[in-house]
Design a protein that fits this description.
Number of helices: 8
Distance between the termini: 103 Å
Number of strands: 0
Radius of gyration: 34 Å
Strand content: under 5%
Largest sheet: none
């Protein structure tokens, strides 16, 4: 129980710093793609920042694993976290660091009690669109025969891909770009499904609340009618008048003369 408490304390303590580091990673990933002509020192600084952010998330995972009361249970219940930690070590590609960091940030964001489902889904949609646009622009910009050359083209392509519209005016031509498209389509369908389910659940709960309110008002009116009938009967009894519907009882007849 003590170890479990220590794990929870660590997760709560690291929640805000890790989410702040995620913003640092977003800036470090964006700058070299948006400004490829920036000085080499800027590119090196961004690369170092990306590795530092990923390393911090990896250390966070290892600390949580060490504090978990059941190590194997933690490993089995957090397979994506383990994959995200090991992925950049297999091949030190910038795109793998992006995927792994997004996975780790997503897992951490879902654990935050102050983040609601709507906020998380909205942030995930924006984050996927932004990083998907940057990733495909990095891959396709210099590809022979490619037609995604600017950030505007990449954002438009990401939006139409996530919503599965697919106009076809912009599309990746490289294998890695098409792999990104597959991941973006699957993620977009999943997130849109969550949004649709959330909206449907809101409508259902609203209808249920309206039905419950209607039933409560009906029960209140029936109780009020019963109370009014009881009061009328009590008033009639106190005034000596016969109750409505009650047979009139004849009084004693006077003696005949």
């Amino acid at each position: 129980m003590k170890q479990q408490t220590a794990q929870i304390r660590w997760e709560k303590r690291m929640q805000t710093p890790l989410l702040a580091l995620a913003l640092v990673f977003a800036v470090a990933y964006t700058v070299p793609i948006v400004a490829p002509g920036a000085p080499s020192g800027v590119h090196r600084s961004c690369q170092v920042a990306e590795w530092v952010v990923w390393g911090t998330f990896a250390v966070d995972y290892l600390v949580r694993l060490s504090l978990a009361p059941g190590k194997w249970l933690f490993l089995r219940s957090h397979p994506l976290d383990l994959l995200a930690v090991l992925l950049p070590l297999v091949q030190p590609l910038r795109l793998l660091r992006l995927v792994s960091t997004l996975l780790l940030v997503g897992r951490r964001a879902r654990m935050a009690p102050q983040i609601t489902l709507t906020t998380y889904v909205g942030g995930a949609v924006v984050g996927l669109m932004m990083f998907g646009s940057l990733a495909v622009l990095q891959v396709e910009r210099d590809a022979p025969g490619g037609n995604i050359r600017t950030l505007g083209d990449a954002v438009w392509w990401s939006f139409t891909t996530m919503t599965t519209v697919g106009y076809g005016d912009h599309s990746p031509t490289t294998g890695l770009g098409r792999l990104l498209a597959v991941g973006l389509m699957i993620s977009g369908i999943a997130l849109l499904g969550v949004v649709t389910a959330n909206i449907a659940a809101w409508f259902i709960s609203r209808f249920e609340r309206d039905d419950a309110e209607e039933r409560r008002q009906t029960a209140l009116l029936e109780a009020l009618a019963v109370e009014v009938r009881g009061l009328r009967a009590e008033v009639a009894r106190l005034s000596g008048a016969p109750e409505a519907g009650a047979p009139e009882v004849p009084g004693p007849s006077s003696p005949r003369s």
